[in-house]
């Protein structure tokens, strides 16, 4: 059972275009994290969102956590070739007094064409 | 170095052989994870160590897979009687697991690419 779903699975766009990728679940998460992975390397954290409805911006990237803490989106403005990579969302369902493992979605593979 | 270190970076083995994959986490990180990633796919959770608690082994795909974490530091993932479907990149990650309202970020190694022929 895939607890975290991501869409689209693949995305190929021209440099300068905007895009949004989605991360959805039927479960409530205490936090969601977004990672980017480049070939031959491990994923690298981009952002963590914790509060329902939270919006965080990282330069041209905007992350939003759904009000019910079940979904999240990543919007990239004016995409550049350097944005190419696999974008992974990840979450845990732990509470303040307990730990829980972090699980990952299947990822969105983004290709930005110059 | 200061990051998560995995060895070997590449491993080619014959079907039926046993393999051991090693992970050196960042010093002081109490949480350690093993994930498996097939080509172009997401990360499949395998096992999770948190401090002195019993590990969460719920992601191990079969009893051919096992992992240990000695002294709360180095971890070894062992695959016995390897099969071709075990071919993948095995990623290790560690974190501080600060228990405020969310897990601290995971720091990943570059993985071990396992090929079973």
Give the N-to-C terminal Cα separation of chain B.
33 Å
**Radius of gyration from the alpha-carbon trace of chain B, in angstroms:** 14 Å
Structural class of chain B: mainly beta
The rounded distance between the terminal residues' Cα atoms of chain A is 37 Å
- What's the helix-strand series of chain A? EEEEEEEEEEE
- Largest sheet descriptor of chain A: 6 strands, mixed
Oligomeric state of the chains present here: heterodimer
Explain how this protein is built.
The complex is a heterodimer of chains A (114) and B (117). Chain A is built from no helices and eleven strands. Chain A is mainly β and 114 residues long. In chain A, the strands form two sheets. In chain A, strands 2, 4, 5, 9, 10 and 11 form a six-stranded mixed β-sheet that branches. In chain A, strand 4 and strand 5 form a beta hairpin. The model of chain A has no long low-confidence stretch (mean pLDDT 91). Chain B is mainly beta and 117 residues long. In chain B, 0% of the residues lie in helices and 45% in strands. Chain B has strands spanning 5-7, 10-13, 19-24, 31-37, 43-50, 65-69, 75-79, 88-95, 107-108, 112-116. In chain B, a hairpin with a 5-residue loop joins strand 4 and strand 5 (43-50). The termini of chain B are far apart. The mean pLDDT of chain B is 91. Classes of the chains: A mainly beta (114), B mainly beta (117).
Provide a compact summary of the structure.
The complex is a heterodimer of chains A (about 110) and B (about 120). Chain A is about 0% helix and about 50% strand.
Defining key terms:
heterodimer; A: 114 residues; mainly beta; five-stranded antiparallel β-sheet; 51% strand; B: 117 residues; four-stranded antiparallel β-sheet; 0% helix; globular
What is the secondary structure topology, with strand pairs?
The complex is a heterodimer of chains A (114) and B (117).
Chain A: E1 5-7, E2 10-14, E3 19-24, E4 31-37, E5 44-49, E6 55-58, E7 61-65, E8 71-76, E9 85-92, E10 103-104, E11 108-113
Parallel strand pairs in A: 2-11
Antiparallel strand pairs in A: 1-3, 3-8, 4-5, 4-9, 6-7, 7-8, 9-10, 9-11
Chain B: E1 5-7, E2 10-13, E3 19-24, E4 31-37, E5 43-50, E6 65-69, E7 75-79, E8 88-95, E9 107-108, E10 112-116
Parallel strand pairs in B: 2-10
Antiparallel strand pairs in B: 1-3, 3-7, 4-5, 4-8, 6-7, 8-9, 8-10
């Amino acid at each position: 059972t895939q607890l975290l779903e991501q869409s689209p699975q693949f995305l190929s766009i021209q440099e300068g275009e905007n895009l949004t990728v989605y991360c959805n679940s039927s479960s409530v998460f205490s936090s969601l994290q977004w990672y980017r992975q480049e070939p031959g390397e491990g994923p690298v954290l981009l952002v963590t969102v914790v509060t329902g409805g939270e919006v965080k911006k990282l330069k041209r990237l905007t992350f939003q956590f759904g009000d019910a803490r079940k979904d999240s989106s990543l919007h990239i403005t004016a995409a550049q070739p350097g944005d190419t990579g696999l974008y992974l969302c990840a979450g845990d369902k732990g509470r303040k007094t307990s730990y829980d493992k972090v699980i990952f979605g299947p990822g969105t593979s983004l290709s930005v064409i110059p | 170095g200061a990051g998560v270190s995995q060895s070997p970076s590449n491993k080619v083995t014959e079907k039926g052989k046993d393999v051991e994959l090693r992970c050196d986490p960042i010093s002081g990180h109490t949480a350690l994870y093993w994930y498996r990633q097939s080509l172009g796919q997401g990360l499949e959770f395998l096992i999770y160590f948190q401090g002195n608690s019993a590990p969460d082994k719920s992601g191990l795909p079969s009893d051919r897979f096992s992992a240990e974490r000695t002294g709360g530091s180095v971890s070894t993932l062992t695959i016995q009687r390897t099969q071709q479907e075990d071919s993948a990149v095995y990623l290790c990650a560690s974190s501080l697991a600060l228990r405020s309202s969310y897990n601290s970020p995971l720091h990943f190694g570059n993985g071990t690419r396992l090929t079973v022929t």
